[in-house]
């Protein structure tokens, strides 16, 4: 009799463990479904923001862009914004690019192609290489340097071989590519550089 009871108890425990295991598996599937977009490589919010910023970027001389007209390889290619702020695009020739966002140039090119060239052109433009920035003043190697996305002023100074012993390390003067006047800015580790910026490190006063 005791052996029979033990057998019944063993079967009950086995069924209970199976039931609990199935419940845990179901919960794992629900959790997996909730995180599936992230697991499949869906871009985080910060990446989406970076992409949106790229389309708001104001173009200028020396920017290199890639133009893609879908289904029209002869109208696609890589082009450079020249010193006059224009870019030579297939069929339409020189058009103004400096001062425009990527989206504005994209829409402008599509609009011209739509007027007598293509019925429904789909145009995509992206910046391949940003215009350089400049570091002047109290640095060891003043000059022009290629821009890298996310670069800080401290990174820029490091590219210029660091400060001289006379440098004012508390603030710098920055002139953007779209302004005539430079502005004094407190130098922090998070102060960023934009394409075309001129950074001037002044001499400190003793």
Summarize the structure.
It is a multi-pass membrane protein. Helices cover 33% and strands 22% of the residues.
Describe the SSE topology:
Blueprint: H1 2-34, H2 36-39, H3 45-56, E1 64-69, E2 77-80, E3 86-89, E4 93-96, H4 102-114, E5 123-129, E6 133-137, E7 143-145, H5 153-159, E8 171-175, E9 183-186, E10 198-201
Parallel strand pairs: 6-10
Antiparallel strand pairs: 1-2, 1-5, 3-4, 6-7, 8-9, 8-10
Number of strands: 10
- Helix fraction by DSSP (H/I, runs of at least 4): 25-40%
Radius of gyration: 29 Å
Strands of the widest sheet, in order across it, are: 7-6-10-8-9
From the helix content, strand content and strand pairing, which structural class follows? alpha+beta
SSE string, helix = H, strand = E?
A: HHHEEEEHEEEHEEE
Shape: elongated
Q: How many domains would you count in the coordinates? A: 2
CATH top level assignment of the largest domain: Alpha Beta
Low-confidence stretches: 2-9, 22-52
Strand content: 15-25%
- What is the distance, rounded to the nearest whole angstrom, between the alpha carbons of the first and last residues? 100 Å
Major beta-sheet overview: 5 strands, mixed
Helical stretch tally = 5
Which CATH architecture of the largest domain would you pick?
Answer: 2-Layer Sandwich
CATH topology of the largest domain: wza like fold
Please state the average pLDDT score. 80
CATH superfamily of the largest domain: wza like domain
Oligomeric form:
single chain
